[in-house]
């Protein structure tokens, strides 16, 4: 019963007209995240004190929470609009890769895993947007 209620709430939110552009916004945020990963790695190597701020675990946990929020709304909206599940599956794989990156120590492996996850998630949003056309 609770699952059905949650599905209805998410569906109602996703059907709201202002959420039509959420895939575009989510792709832009994915791009900012990808840029953050690349620039932070470079800056961290050059300026250890500045890099420490953005390498904080809470920064990445909040970023993941924002990515999940946008993904749920955008992919739910996509399911309402076009009914194609593939974008949601691809986006979910990206979120899993991003979540997995939080489980390894900070360093090159985490950065690469996060960048792969963000790229897959952005691709899922692109598929979602394309399926709505």
Structure summary:
The chain is mostly helical. The protein contains six helices and no strands.
Looking at this protein, list some descriptive labels.
133 residues, mainly alpha, 6 helices
Commentary on this structure:
The chain has 133 residues and is mainly α. It has one domain. It is 83% helix and 0% strand. It is built from six helices and no strands. Helix 2 packs antiparallel against helix 6, helix 4 runs antiparallel to helix 5 and helix 4 packs parallel to helix 6. It is elongated and about 45 Å long. The termini are far apart. The mean pLDDT is 81.
Instruction: Enumerate the spans where pLDDT stays under 50 for 5 or more consecutive residues.
Output: none
Terminus-to-terminus distance = 33 Å
Instruction: Count the beta strands.
Output: 0
- Strand portion, in percent? under 5%
Shape descriptor: elongated
User: Biggest sheet, open or closed, and with what strands and sense?
Assistant: none
Oligomer: single chain
Percent helix, as a range, is over 70%
User: What is the domain tally?
Assistant: 1
The ordered H/E elements are HHHHHH
Q: Total number of helical segments?
A: 6
| Rg, Cα atoms, Å | 16 Å
Broad structural category: mainly alpha
Mean pLDDT over all positions: 81
Topology summary:
Layout: H1 2-15, H2 22-46, H3 48-54, H4 57-81, H5 86-101, H6 108-131
């Amino acid at each position: 019963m609770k699952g059905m209620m949650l599905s209805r709430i998410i569906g109602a939110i996703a059907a709201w007209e202002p959420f039509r552009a959420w895939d575009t916004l989510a792709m832009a945020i994915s791009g900012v995240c990808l840029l953050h990963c690349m620039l932070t790695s470079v800056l961290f190597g050059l300026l250890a004190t500045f890099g420490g701020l953005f390498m904080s675990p809470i920064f990445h946990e909040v970023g993941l929470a924002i990515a999940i929020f946008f993904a749920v709304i955008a992919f739910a909206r996509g399911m309402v609009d076009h009914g194609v599940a593939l974008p949601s599956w691809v986006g979910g794989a990206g979120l899993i890769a991003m979540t997995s990156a939080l489980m390894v120590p900070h360093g090159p492996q985490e950065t690469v895993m996060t960048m792969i996850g963000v790229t897959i998630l952005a691709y899922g949003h692109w598929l979602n947007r394309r399926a709505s056309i």
